[in-house]
Amino acid sequence: MTNLHALPADLPAPVDDGACDHLPGQRVPALRLPGTDGQTYDLSALPGRTVLYLYPKTGRPDGAVPEGWDQIPGARGCTPQSCAFRDHHAELQAAGARVFGLSVQPTAYQQEAAERLHLPFALLSDADRHWSRALKLPTFEAGGETLLRRTTLILRGGVVEHVFFPVFPPDRNAADVLAWLAAHS
After folding, report:
1. d(CA 181, CA 97)
2. Where do the Thioredoxin domain residues begin and end (predicted)?
3. HSE-CB for 132 with a 13 A CA cutoff
4. Which residue range is the domain that position 157 belongs to?
5. Residue 55 domain-assigned?
């Protein structure tokens, strides 16, 4: 059994290969994404700031992670990242930002994580990958799946204002976002 809440000390760090250099200033696609809260969201139509953390895949306590998962730079850490955004949620709201997580996993799969981790925000599903393909988001292959590389976007009025890429370590991402928001209020 893998402890989904702990990050291994020898986790390989991802490198910035420029895969997100095209994103600042991009308008996000006007597509509705289903959320674990039962609502659908068009991120292009939301006013103000939105923090959108993109993650590869949440594991389940009763399941195995794909073979070699811990050796893929940036793959491991979805649970610690989600928990950090949960723990900093009130501060992020106070800084004027709403929060969503997004993966290519179906909503039914994401629902288990949202409930188990007591997330106060919705996880969004891009299972058909239309949204992520429109933005040309970076991906990787693992366990026979095409997954999103860990990236966090700050959206303002439907436009990408800032990009955190690569995100490492994932459990510090929410604090890094808070620091950025404080410096750019």
Report:
1. 9
2. 22-185
3. 27
4. 32-183
5. yes
CATH of the domain at 81: 3.40.30.10
Token representation of residue 6: 């702990």
Greater model confidence, 4 or 147: 147
The answer to whether position 165 is within a domain reads: yes
Q: Which amino acid is at 51?
A: V
Task: Say if pTM beats, i.e. exceeds, 0.85.
Answer: yes
Q: Which residues contact 110 (CB under 8 A, 6 or more apart)?
A: 36, 58, 103, 123, 125
Q: Residue 81 in contact with residue 177, Cβ under 8 Å?
A: no
Q: For residue 23, is it within any domain?
A: no
Per-residue confidence (pLDDT) for residue 7, from 0 to 100: 77
Domain count, the chain: 1
Report the pLDDT averaged over residues 109-120: 96
Task: Say how far apart CA 138 and CA 15 lie, in whole Å.
Answer: 13
List the structure tokens of 88: 């900093």
Q: How far apart (Å, rounded) are the C-alpha atoms in residues 166 and 13?
A: 9
